[in-house]
Automatic annotation (TrEMBL), chain A:
It comes from the Eukaryota. It is found in: Endoplasmic reticulum membrane; Golgi apparatus membrane. Belongs to the YIF1 family. It comes from Saccharomyces uvarum. The gene is SUVZ14G0710. Signal peptide: none annotated. Keywords: Endoplasmic reticulum, Golgi apparatus, Membrane, Protein transport, Transmembrane, Transmembrane helix, Transport. It holds the Pfam family YIF1. The chain crosses the membrane at residues 196-214, 226-244, 250-269, 301-318. It is a multi-pass membrane protein. This is Protein YIF1. Has a role in transport between endoplasmic reticulum and Golgi.
Automatic annotation (TrEMBL), chain B:
It is found in: Membrane. The chain crosses the membrane at residues 6-23, 63-82. Its main location: membrane. Signal peptide: none annotated. This is Yos1-like protein. Keywords: Membrane, Protein transport, Transmembrane, Transmembrane helix, Transport. PANTHER family: IMMEDIATE EARLY RESPONSE 3-INTERACTING PROTEIN 1.
Length: 319, 84
């Protein structure tokens, strides 16, 4: 901690400006996920833990009760944190906590598959003609702290369309090859590998950009949701593939392809931008204050470059 | 097929290698990305800037991935020598 000139002036009363007063608030949510998985695990493995506890208690308690042992432990811990760097150590701990919390709630992925025919149709309309969004609303609907599943909310991302799109895209690409008379079963694998490679690269760029731009305390997209948004590009790609079969004047094909990619760029930009910083749980005021204007502006620039320029380049490469 | 999952793996591996070999004293500190000269932010200053994140990321890659990278690089080199 650096020198804080306000520490003694307002410290004893409410201390609104004091940064020390904020530290308990920030630490509390960090410690919560650490406790919950351990508790549930303890309940599940109660029988096994009982044996282990009995053993350790019988052997004279915790091995670091010995003073020399505890000193060595502290020395080792400080040396470890010095070696890695306190920031990295804290970050590592946070990551581990987050990972364990995610593992506990991993069945939440299934909510991204709760789709209905109407949702898929509306979403397709949204991707293909994002300029005439009927409700003019791109934000996801919140219901008691959680987002609604895709079935009830058009703006929610889903995993169904990306996966179906991936399969369809590969099959259609190979069908095209077959129609040209040069079908090769190996192409199924090669195309899958290449497509997954592009998707992975795309996801990497998006995730890295958002990681660097957005404060890690602000809740933002999870990796699955980003994967959804990345995967929607199969819809225009499939249409562009189908387009090559229809005999049309050459320029028209290029124009339609161009329109599809631009429309997808608009869709991606809007749906990511409006949901990027809007989410917040209980401490709404805290979070809204801490999102600065410059962050929003930088995110907009990044999303523009990503959504329009990079997506267009990528889709020309893939299609 | 030019680009695929294998190529993507190579690209990522080489990029991580490139980050891991950056020298702290000779290069990073000179362009202001060294870990030792990160001033703890004063009151009112933004704590999580892009620059501090880059510094953290480079530091994390260098400390966490240096030893695994040796093994992975050796494996890839052997594979390329034998089968590439």
């Amino acid at each position: 901690m650096s020198y804080n000139p306000y520490a003694y002036t307002t410290g004893e009363q409410n201390g609104v400006n004091d940064r020390f007063a904020h530290t308990p608030q920030h630490q509390q949510p960090m410690q919560m996920p650490r406790n919950t998985p351990m508790n549930s695990q303890a309940n599940v493995n109660a029988n096994m833990n009982a044996n282990v506890n009995a053993n350790t208690n019988g052997a004279g308690g915790f091995p670091f009760q010995d003073t020399r042992g505890s000193m060595a432990f502290q020395l080792g811990q400080s040396a470890f944190s010095n070696f890695i760097g306190q920031d990295n150590f804290n970050q590592f701990q946070e990551t581990v906590n987050k990972a364990t919390a995610n593992a506990a709630g991993s069945q939440q992925i299934s909510t991204y598959f709760q789709v209905s025919t109407r949702y898929v149709f509306n979403k397709l309309k949204l991707i293909l003609v994002p300029f005439i969004n009927g409700t003019k609303n791109w934000q996801r609907i919140m219901d008691s702290g959680n987002f609604l599943p895709p079935r009830d909310d058009v703006n929610s991302p889903d995993m169904y369309m990306p996966i179906m799109g991936l399969v369809t895209y590969i099959l259609i690409w190979n069908t095209q090859k077959g129609l040209q008379g040069s079908f090769n079963p190996e192409d199924l694998y090669y195309k899958l590998s290449s497509t997954l490679g592009f998707v992975g690269l795309d996801l990497l760029i998006l995730k890295l950009g958002l990681y660097l731009l957005i404060d890690s305390k602000i809740p933002s997209f999870s990796l699955v949701e980003l994967l959804c948004y990345v995967g929607y590009k199969f819809v225009p790609l499939i249409l562009a593939q189908l387009l090559t079969n229809v005999t049309m004047p050459f320029n028209l094909t290029i124009l339609i392809k161009f329109y599809l990619f631009i429309a997808f760029g608009v869709f991606l930009l809007r749906s990511v931008k409006f949901n990027l910083l809007g989410r917040s749980g209980a401490g709404e005021d805290d979070i809204h204050v801490s999102v600065s204007k410059t962050t929003v502006k930088k995110c907009n620039y990044f999303l523009f470059v990503y959504g329009f320029i990079w997506q267009n380049v990528l889709m020309w490469l893939m299609g | 097929m030019i680009f695929g999952l294998g190529r993507l793996f190579y690209v990522i591996l080489l990029l991580i290698n490139a980050v891991a070999v950056l020298s702290e004293e000779r290069f990073l500190r000179r362009i202001g990305l060294g870990r030792s000269n990160d001033e703890t932010p004063v009151f009112g200053q933004d704590q999580n800037t892009t620059k501090s994140k880059v510094v953290q990321l480079i530091g994390a890659v260098q400390t966490l991935l240096r030893i695994p990278l040796i093994g992975i690089n050796v494996l890839v080199i052997i594979y390329e020598l034998l089968l590439g």
